Structures are given as C-alpha cells and as structure tokens.
Amino acid sequence: MLASGVASFDWTTSDDHIEWNGAVDILPYHHDRKRLARGAAFHSWLNPESRARLTQLIEARSGQEANFELALEASSAMGSIWITMIGVRMPTLMGTTERLTGVLRVTTEHQREIQRLTYLATRDELTGHLNRNALRTELAQAIDRARAENRHCAFLVASIDRLAMINDGYGFDAGDEVIVAAGERLARTLRSTDIIGRTAGNKFGVILKNCSEREIAVVAERLRRAVRSNVIDTRCGQVSATSSVGAVWLPTGAATSQEAMLRAEEALDKARITGRDGFAAYEKSPLREGARVRLMAIADEVMQAMNDDRLRLAYQPIIDAHTREVFKYEALLRMQRLDGTIATAGQFVPAAEQLGIINLVDRRALEMVIATLKSNPEARIGVNVSGTAASNPSWLHSFVDYVRANGQIANRLDVELTETAALNHFEENAQFVSQLRELGATVAIDDFGAGYTSFRNLQMLHVDMVKIDGAYIKGLSESPDNQVFVRTLVGLAKSFNLKVVAEWVGSEEDAKLLEAMGVDYFQGFFFGEPEIAPEWMKR
Question: Distance (Å, rounded) from C-alpha 417 to C-alpha 509?
C-alpha cells in the first residue's frame, strides 16, 4: 500500500507507455489523467527546465543500470506543484534507455519551505529588498556579464541623509517607516532589469545593468528626486527626507563586487561633503588607490589568518578599584602574522569592518572566548562586538543563539557594545541586550562619553556597566576639564545603578582620583598589559 502523495510508475520508452500504481494522489493535479498513461503527455506537463532534466535522463547512453532522483515542477489549476521522481534507469543492450521505474512523491510543501527559507536568507527583514550579501552576489554576476559582453553597468549607493536626527526627533519607529518609504520610492524609479537592496541601516545599493557613464548622473538625480519630492507620512507625523548618492561605473571603476561597493561608498562620502542631497561618482586617485590596495591586502591577510587558525586573544585584567584584585579580563583580538609577529586589533579590525568581514572575525572571537571560559571555570571574560556587527540583526540573533547553546558559561560572559553603535541601531541592540541578560550574561557600553548617550537612551538599554572612554582618563590628574567631564559621566551612570570601568588608567594618582569619584573598576597598562598566554590560563 503506497502512502498518500506517492505513486509508483513503470515507463517503457519503446511504446512510451507508463503504468501507474497508487497515482490517485498525484494524477488529480493533471487536467486529463488518462493522457498521463503516455510518456509524452507526462513530459509536456512539466515546465521547460524540468522537461530538460528528464530528457537528459532518457537520452543518456550507458550500459549500466543507474539510480536517479529528479526534482520536477509541473502546472495545475492550483498553481505549480513539485514532485520528486526517484527510480532506476534500465538500459538496452545498446545503452539507450529501455525503462524508467520507481516512485513519484509530491514534495510541494517541502519545496515551498525551501523557497521561503531561501527568500528569508536573501532579503532584508525591514524592507523586503535584497540584503547586502545577496546584492553583492548579484553585483558580482552583473560585473562578470558586463565584462563578457563588452558593455558596462553601474553600482550606486543611496543614503538617507541625517537619519539619526529623524530618529531623535520622531522616534525609531518613524525612522523605520522613512527607511521603508525611501526604499519603495527608489525601487519605483528603476527599470525592471535593475536591482535594489539594503546594504546598511540607512543605505540602499542599486545595480544598473547596461548603463552608459553619462546615464549614471541622470539616474542618481532621479533617485534623489524620488526621495525628496514629497513628505513621508509616518505614525508620528510627516517627515521630510533627502538622500545622497555615490556611484561607480563598472567594470572600468572596479574589478570585483567588493571593490565596487567600497568605491561607491568612497564616492558617497564625497557626495556628503557639501551637506544633504549630494551626488558624486568615483574618480580614480593614486593616493586613494594605494590606500585601497593596502586595505584589500590586510583583509586578505585576516581571512588567511582565520583559515590558518592564527587569530589570537590577548587578555587584559580589569581591577576592582577598592581591593585592587582582578575582577575579570577583557579579550582583545590579535593576529599572528606568518613571520610570527603579532598585530593588534587596530592594525586589522578597521579594514575588516570596511570590507564586510568583521562579522566573521567577531564570531571567531566569541567562539574562542567561550572555549576559554569552558576550560577556565574561575574566569570571567568580556568580549567586544564591533559597530558593524551590531547593525546586523541576523548576526546578533546568531550571537545570542550561540551563547544560549553554551548557557553554562553565560553568567561569566560580559559583552561590550560601543556607545555609538548601540544607539545608531537602538531597537536591535536593546533587544540584543535584553536577550543576553536573560541568559545570565552582563552587557557593558564601551567608550562611554564618545557618543551622545542621553538619560533616556541609557535607561532604555538596560545595560549593567559602562566603560568610560580612555581618551578622558589618560593623564586625568593633570586635566581639570576632563575631571569635570568624567565626574559628570560617573554621576550619570550611578544614577542608573550602573557599574563604572575607567579605561587607560596610567598612574596611581589617576587611580585614586577615579576611586574618589566613584569608579568601580580600573583597566590600563598600569595594572596589567594584554597577554596572549597569561599565567592563570597556564594554571
């Protein structure tokens, strides 16, 4: 007895006859079931791509029996259906196909689930446009096609101007509505062959296929006009928005998709110099080209170091201000070069951020920190999340999932977010903080004072700790202005019952001054330098 949705078949190619068994669950999808006793009718039922795969199987020449499995799409009154054909090809003495025998199974729901997951993996959650990775794949294909066909295309980055001010004035919900509306307006101005995707919080990337250099400025003006032409209605009121555009002509201006995105961003920075609603196209500069080559070389070195397992963590102690004993350690990224020398994070992390590989680096750092916590049950360690990773909701979800899967160490894990990154992507990071704290981890705001934290934002983030930017701590005892500022920051943090860490503490005099202000913990070379293999790990 065959299961529902399954039918067996025996197809003899000499007379093109198919003998069906248990086909009542499959054949009703066809408008004329009797005709499907003929192979030609079954063949014509399939869409062109599926017909081609089946034809290739039938026309194969081999003297050996062979198992096969084909995913086939057919049409019905209810729309497309998917069936999987599994069986054995039996050859004649001449090697041609004599019979196909096996089973058909209806797999429409499974195929739709695959398509749904594929859609989610390639789409931006807020706007529904392609996400950065999917857009980059499309861009690579467009560049390759343009090169092969000896023509040109272009890549543009359109950025919503001053979105942070919109978020501050109207709220983050209104900011999201502006992003969605701007994306819809940009998409409506494009040709059917052009492609749009969201590359960052306030940025959209646009691929113009078969585009002359002269047309780039025309399209850029059309995009900018579409955004600024009418106010955007949000639930919090009407918002007036503008956009700036940077562009690069391809493949003349860049050889790869990564290079094209980087150069369009460079042009966007130039467009913003004059303020809002600007446009600039990439122009080759020997100085900038040299910097780009160095950037690419560093990124390649980082990827090779990851493949060779040469990323390291250096652990710097954070000291209790009252007992002067180690409270925890901060894990700082290092890269061991091929010659054995060690590169600090500042020598490679900026390049990794600019070229979009920092998410991989941050994930590796998390994995290494958790491994260290598992092998050192007395240790408490802080790990940093870069600003770029903090803007990626799917990456934040995967971070939380990894911590959840290693929940036994969560109460000894501290996660550090930079102030500006946390506030630029407030809603995603507020949820990120909440989920980590529910798991038992603590969360700190790093570089506190470098951004624009307000009482309201600090309260809504619900973090456990702030780390005062070391630029205000260095030489504190000799800077009355910094003393006033640091005292204010400490008072702000204490009003929300937050613990305070002072970074870059360089002397006992500074430490005593900070302790008197109410600082809870010290971090700096005066109390301990970062070490890749500290004594406590050896023990």
Answer: 29
Give residue for tokens 């100085």: 287
Residue from 68, 106, 109, 72 nearest 87 by CA:
68
Average pLDDT over residues 231-240: 91
Residue 2 is predicted with a pLDDT of 44
Residues 6+ apart with CB under 8 A from 388: 353, 356, 358, 359, 421
H/E element holding 331? strand 326-336
Give yes or no for a contact between 185 and 177, defined as CB atoms under 8 angstroms apart. no
Residue 426 neighbours by CB under 8 Å, 6+ apart? 167, 172, 457, 460, 461
SS3 65: coil
Reported as a single tens digit per residue, the pLDDT across 474-510 is 999 999 989 999 998 899 888 888 999 999 999 999 9
- Express each pLDDT in 175-207 by its tens digit: 899 999 999 999 999 998 999 999 988 999 999
Rounded-to-integer distance, Cα 367 and Cα 345, Å: 17
Percent of all residues in the chain with a pLDDT value above 70, rounded to a whole number: 91
Sheet holding 195-200, edge to edge: 195-200, 203-208, 153-160, 243-250, 279-281
pTM equals 0.54
| Confidence label for 405 from pLDDT (cuts 50, 70 and 90) | very high
Q: Does domain 124-284 have CATH number 3.30.70.270?
A: yes
Partners of residue 280 on adjacent β-strands:
246
d(CA 496, CA 229): 44
Return mean pLDDT, the chain: 87
Question: How many other C-beta atoms are found inside a 10 Å radius of the C-beta of residue 4?
Answer: 9
Residue 158: closest CA among 228, 241, 220, 212: 220
DSSP one-letter code for 231: P
Within the chain, all domains assigned CATH 3.20.20.450 are found at 292-538
Rounded CA-CA distance 320/279 in Å is 52
Over 80: is that where the pLDDT of 23 sits? no
pLDDT level of residue 421 (50, 70, 90 thresholds): low
CB 280 within 8 A of CB 271: yes
- Between 393-405 and 426-439, two packed helices, what is the crossing angle to 10 degrees? 0
Q: Is 325 helix (H, G, I), strand (E, B) or coil?
A: coil
CA 507 centroid distance within chain: 41
Token code pair at residue 499: 């613990």
CATH assignment, 6-114: 3.30.450.20
Tell the CATH topology of 292-538.
TIM Barrel (3.20.20)
* SS3 of the chain: helix, strand, coil, percent, to 5: 45, 25, 25
207 close to 155: Cβ distance less than 8 angstroms: yes
